[in-house]
Amino acid sequence: MLKTRVIPTMLWKDLSLVKGIGFNSWRRVGSVMPAVKIYNSRDVDELILLDITATIDDREPDEETIKSFASECFVPLTIGGGIKKISQIEYLLSSGADKISINSHSYIDPMFIKNASDYFGSQCIVSSIDFKKLDDGKYTCFSNSGTKNMNTEPVEWAKKMEQLGCGEILLTSIDLDGSQKGYDIEVIKKVSDAVKIPVIASGGAGNYEHMISAIKDGGASAVAAASIFHFTDKTPAKAKEAMKDKNIPVRDCFKVNQ
Amino acid sequence: MSVAILNYGMGNTFSIKHAIKSLGFDAYIANNPSEIEKAEKIILPGVGSFAKAMDNLNTRGWTPEITKLVKERKIPILGICLGMHLFANSSNEIKKTKGLSFINGDVVKLNEIGCQNKLPHVGWNEVKLKKDLILNDIDQNSDFYFVHSYCYKNLKDDVIIGTTNYGVEIISIIKYNNVIGTQFHPEKSSLVGKKILKNFLEIS
Amino acid sequence: MKYCSKCIIPETRPDQFLDKDGICNACKSYEQRKEIDWNKRLDQLKEIINKNKNNSSKWDCVIPSSGGKDSTYQAIRAKELGLNPVVVTATTCDLSDLGKRNIINLKNLGFDTFEISPNPKIRAKLNKLCLKEIGDIAWPEHVSIFTIPIRFALNYKIPMILWGENPQFEYGGPNEKIHSNVLDRAWLEEFGGLLGMRVSDLVESYGFDHRDLYPYNYPSESELSEFNVMGLFLGHYEPWDNLRNAEISKKNGFFTFKKAIENGYFDSEKLDNHQHGIHDYFKFLKYGFGRATDQLCFMIRRDLISREEALDYVKKNEGKFPLSYLDKPLEEILKKIDMSLDEFKKTCDKFTNKKLFECNQANELNKDKFGNLILKKIDN
Question: What is the mean pLDDT of residues A139-165?
Fold first, then answer.
């Protein structure tokens, strides 16, 4: 049967690996290369690498650098950040990426999602949706690394992206991101129930129970996390052990000393 | 040994070459049909839609070259994911399209064979293996990395050497003489995936 | 790459922030010193010390030391504060003669001293692996300078470890951590320079025997719960000053290099480990600045050198390919970890952030005849 995935996320800003809280107060954690190598050596289920200022800076994806990261990576790799052309996707897929994540441009040109899915197949197009709770209690999507309110409700947007052909939803709570307080289970569940494509829960993981909850209570197919892996001694392998204990099917990672 | 990875504009050629290199073998990326003349083994990758892929193969002159090498010279060919689908008679992805017809079967969307789970089928899943050289030294029910929404619909039993459960039984590895295909991505499937690549590179 | 408009630290340094005026958080922390009631903080430390005081003859404080100027100062200060310290040295990866002499000097000043040396063969393997995998040769040292003293304190039931400066306050860190007085397991995980490498990775992914890695394991929660060891930053209770530490240590017999360390500015720090040069060089490759910048920022904040002079020095003296360190040639340093010069150069290139350095048309790094890279720009 299909295994639940634990996916470390790496956020890339300018020249560094970063992590923020609430998509703000970005801390430079180090450089991307060591992180790629470590996660690769841990034989993680998948990796996500997002260039978080490509759209804001109106910049092309840094294909050379991405290629240098992909060359250290044997695990399935999702790349995102500033993607708005078919040619960019083509280059990235031929340079080591397995899936492409699209966020901001999907609001500007939703048909781009359809075109990309038709061309490359829905399985390699991930729609990245960042959402926040407003003062009135309603949820809304944000683009441009959490800076532009798109006045769209995440469930509706997820359904639209699914209709246009994307293969997965990467669903991130801006409020909880970096907080290590837990995922937004309510929204995860609403989106997972509304779409027939896999949902990756993101934003807020602080311990293994949070991840288990995102799967069992939220109905997510996978969990993504960053802060927990950068700043604590928790690892993807231990997360999967904890999930296994709760009868969530997971893959055993390759261990040298087995 | 000359191993060609076909670049017909739709595949993760880099990842495959990278994985092969890490095994200590060498492979080259063939950018046009004339470059596979002397190939002793071929790898047909595939990321994208069947219709577009066949269109590229046909318009760029790949189809006759590959067919010649595979059917006449019996060169071993490994098709990965969409690459494996292209061996079929046809697929109805986007629109009904004729395939290379190396394998007597058709490709359909997973829900057409009764799969009611979320699609695409993405992530790690077990493969039930039959005995075969290509599967040497691989544990039964090992997990491989899948990322697809389409699959083979109807194949003869003797062509199927690996299956996977995703609500329904999916054909995950096929072999018909010199034509081998994996639904999953061996180049991204950790050690077991690399073993499949290694076995393919080592079979004569 | 933006630089602080006051000192010369670039924003590429992890946990460095520039505010809207372009001033870095370390400079701002330094300015905050004026507002801190240092007397009050020192009283707080004295209170903690008094609370733990009893008539026992046992050690009541661990001073983690490499024999450097800071820990020499910390040891002297601990005695002044009425503590009964034991100096615990976790041997460095490639202990220099200067380092040895300074450890002996510290002992001879009159301190109970323990020197704990993890298996040097395993150490050398870790140095090489960490250099190749995460671009940090000093990983085993970064870890063991914390784990060894804490384990010692636990074993001997010593209630306090007196560390030096709070690095988040001195050099930059998240706001909520700059006034922390405590160093604990969570601190190590967040700030201990682990670059994501965990002991569990070494066992599971790289084939080390877990028994060989005991010195690198921070005690577990249950071990820590058996006896309360408080790790305090001395630099939280009194204004930290590297130069003051150097002066006091020198007065007490501390040996210096007598000239600036390679790629550095001072002659009084980073003297105990020949691998420092490689560590600092990789910092340069990843972030575009090195040891001289760190040391000169310290000087600028105290108005001991102008920003222009500092920049001038850095342009001429920093970021050179580390042909030697403390006069020991690179090849000899690499021999200890069984690494060829060629392998070393390839590893350097792998971790170089090409965006910071000049490259040719084919996106290859431009190097001069000594192998030195050229920063695209220095300063704003």
Answer: 95
| Residue partners of A87: CB distance under 8 A and separation at least 6 | none
Res. A258 pLDDT band, cuts 50 70 90: very low
Distance CA A124, CA A126 (A): 6
Touch B-C: 3+ C-beta pairs under 8 A: no
Give the residue numbers of B annotated as catalytic, written as ranges.
81, 185, 187
Cross-chain CB nearest to C205 (options A25, A35, A41): A41
Dist. CA A245–CA B62, nearest whole Å: 50
Structural contact between residues A62 and A26, judged by C-beta atoms closer than 8 angstroms? no
Q: How far is A255 from chain B (nearest CA, A)?
A: 10
Longest CA–CA span in chain B (Å) reads 45
Q: What is the DSSP letter of B28?
A: E
Q: Where are the alpha helices (DSSP H) in chain B?
A: 13-22, 50-59, 62-67, 82-85, 190-202
Whole-angstrom Cα distance, residue A20 to residue A6? 20
Encoded tokens for A41: 């050596």
3-class secondary-structure state, position C86: strand
Q: Quick: pLDDT tens for B49-79.
A: 898 899 999 999 999 999 999 999 999 999 9
Contact B126, B80 (CB under 8 A): no
Cβ-nearest to A34 among C11, C195, C354:
C195
| Residue range A83-96, pLDDT digits in tens | 999 999 988 888 88
CA distance linking residue B112 with residue B90, whole number of Å: 15
Mean pLDDT of the region C127-138 = 93
Cβ(B151)–Cβ(B110) under 8 Å? yes
* DSSP result, chain A: -PPBEEEEEEEEETTEEEEEETTEEEEEEE-HHHHHHHHHHTT-S-EEEEETTTTTTT----HHHHHHHHTT--S-EEEESS---HHHHHHHHHTT-SEEEE-HHHHH-THHHHHHHHHH-GGGEEEEEEEEE-TTS-EEEEETTTTEE----HHHHHHHHHHHT-SEEEEEETTTTTT-S---HHHHHHHHHH-SS-EEEES---SHHHHHHHHHTT--SEEEESHHHHHSS--HHHHHHHHHHTT--BPPPP-TT-
Most A CBs within 10 Å, among C176, C198, C216, to test the A interface: C198
The residue of chain A with its CA nearest to that of B141 is: A1
ipTM of the complex, rounded to two decimals: 0.91
